[in-house]
Amino acid sequence: MFHSDFFQEFNSLEKEIIESPVSHYYECIREIGLSRSGLAIYGEIIGSGKKVISLIGGSHAEEPIGPLFLRKLTVFLRSSHPLAENLKKNFTFYLAPHVNPDAEVACKKWWDEETYEYDFASYLKYRIRELPGDDVEFSYPGLSNSKNHGRVENLTMINWWEKEKSFTLHGSFHGLSFAPAAWFLLDERNKELIPIIKEYLQQLPYPLLDINRKGEKGFHYLAPGFSTYPNGAEMALFFRKKNDHLTASKFGYSSMDWIKQHSPKCRCFVTENPLFLTPEFERQKISICYQFQRHQKMIQKTQQLPFEKINEEFKDLGFQKNPIELQLKLLCFTLYCHLSQLN
């Protein structure tokens, strides 16, 4: 599975993918459906291998790095590079870099895909996040007792996926807003990937976000920095336990849930890398809920300030932007590990 030249091959692959011009993605795009506002959702099927891989990004509005990576990956796979040809021989890829194009339009107020330009102030002012019932990741129909019958974007993805008899692997590319490190959400059957991912992070070096959610919302602890991914049923249960039945009823299946209903043997993963790194002193075992509440209070406090002042405040507090190339490397390595496991 992880052969002797594993890292050498990955380094070559990573370089080619990251250097693939994202602008070339738009030269040959295929519409698979429309969003609520009538914007095109694009998807591409590449390769001829028996093992079928589904990769999506953009489910959450303020997480642009997954779509960026998947567009670069699509450009690379269209090429005749030997590594691309090898991947296409072994796998068939269903690639939908952005399943939420309405949200991407809103993102453009603070994020530039070509230049990687963004800052704290613009992000805080213009970021949007859909609430339960409108969350594209958790609006796939089929969950018992759910009143969520799916957004048009979800139905588009289902119609596209149903062309395929069975999927081997599904990845949903997400991100964190503020965190001190990366968090890896894996299928429990993929625990054997943990040592190789940790080895790669030590080489960078890059820390792990050690969170134990104790099964809450489906996050079951696997190892420091590694958990299982959430699911719609557990998300709904979390709110029912709080006697919030209205919110609970708004959760549908996640993309992982739907794919596994369609293809029970399919393994899934979710990426969670921070857009902004929190200060060094927070790189310790600390409740993510506490971090979130602390950051929310700080965000509310600073949002009324002029843009320049907001950016100064965050830098003075020790916050920094997580380098985009580093985030892309982590996404690339996560995918490469999962693909290598299938060979």
Report on the structure:
The protein is of the alpha/beta class and 343 residues long. It has one domain (6-287, 318-342): 3-Layer(aba) Sandwich (Aminopeptidase). Helices cover 40% and strands 16% of the residues. The protein contains 13 helices and 13 strands. It has helices at residues 6-18, 65-78, 82-90, 101-107, 120-126, 152-161, 194-203, 232-241, 245-249, 255-262, 288-302, 307-316, 324-342, and strands at 31-34, 40-42, 44-47, 51-57, 91-96, 169-173, 176-179, 183-186, 221-223, 226-228, 267-272, 274-277, 320-321. Strands 3-5-4-6-11-8-10-9 form an eight-stranded mixed beta sheet, sandwiched between helices. A hairpin with a 2-residue loop joins strand 9 and strand 10 (226-228). The longest helix is centred in the last third of the chain and has 19 residues, at 324-342. Residues 281-290 have low confidence and may be disordered.
